[in-house]
Amino acid sequence: MAGLYVHIPFCAQKCIYCDFLSGTNLSLRRQFIDALIAEMDCCLDFFKDDKIRTIYFGGGTPSLLTGEELKRIYDAIVERWDVSEVEEFTMECNPDDLSEEYLVKLKYLPINRLSIGVQSFVDDELKWLNRRHMAKEAFEVVKLAKHAGFDNITIDLMFALPMQTIESLNYSIDKALELDVQHISAYSLMFEPDSKITKLMELNRLEPLDEDIAADMFDLLSERLIEAGYEQYEISNYAKLGFESRHNSGYWHGMRYLGLGPSAHSFDGEKRWSNVAHTIKYIDLVRNEELGIRNEELLNMDERFNELVFTALRTKIGVGLLELRLRFGDMRCDRLLRQAQKYIDAGNMHISNNRLALTHSGIYISDSIISDFMIV
Ligand SMILES: C[S@@+](CC[C@H](N)C(=O)[O-])C[C@H]1O[C@@H](n2cnc3c(N)ncnc32)[C@H](O)[C@@H]1O
Ligand code: SF4
Predict the structure, then answer these.
(1) Of 124, 255, 323, 373, which has the fewest beta carbons less than 10 angstroms from its beta carbon?
(2) CA quadruple 273, 276, 277, 282: dihedral positive or negative?
(3) pTM score, two decimals?
């Protein structure tokens, strides 16, 4: 089974932390959708022996497209590939795009999982992030989505914002728990190379939050969400039982996936490629049937091993040792186990059901542990 990702490269305005590919020139929408559909024709074989299990419309802001535009994309998918076994169809939405009427259109598309970018329930924090919505609006929109019949909703929250306090994060957690959604992603603010906050930091006009406070925030989130019945099944992701993201879990456990649209990444089990990260270039290249939209990377066994270990160890179930041995041979697997022993002895890792995973204390120092396992 495989995944399909579609990148919608538009935003109404840019948030100061974000470096995902998106632009504000919405007049390119029609040409972009034409190009997206033309790109599908170049990848017809991808799902020949492997049916689509998950579809994910991400961005950018997919909810800036009209119901009709989204349907055009979905119909083009259905015309080309078998979607009879799709279990999960997610769409990322910004809270201020969701009206009752629009939600009904999404429901019948048929999207069955909504990912709503709330980020915070504190207005001053939202303003600083340059979000378009206010806290109350996000709160009401999640309720509206539940009312419209969505029973698999995830919200994004952010922590370690420079002006955030333990109290304000506690308040956002209270509001999130009140909404009783099935899934919460909680991301620590990252200073990505091309974002505005990184430029501000380089100019000494912004200071990241103190690391110890950020660590306390991570603990607070996991303690409170786990206590409320969520499982932390990946470093940044919490789900009620049975509501783990199947699409993202596929990425973390080595599933094949096809990414369509500018900047989208794909993995066919051996090869990895990414599309050109520029919307106009993408449209032109697809229009002229040029192959240059893809930047291919053929991974050797060591690199594939590193990738799987890197992503799977960030999940609660960790990495399957039998699968690892079968796919990558005894030498790599034995080396990993030898290196893992000191972390197992220190209580930061454990092996159960023949899977190697981080313990709760290990999760927080996951970066340094995992980097130790990489084959260079
Ligand atoms: C593709 S983005 C956004 C989807 C949608 N446009 C929105 O803003 O709600 C997915 C999520 O990544 C998170 N994110 C993006 N940039 C981030 C950063 N620099 N640090 C931490 N989280 C980030 C945000 O929580 C965001 O909702
Ligand atoms: S966080 Fe979402 S709305 Fe903000 S710039 Fe990134 S993709 Fe666009």
Answers:
(1) 124
(2) negative
(3) 0.95
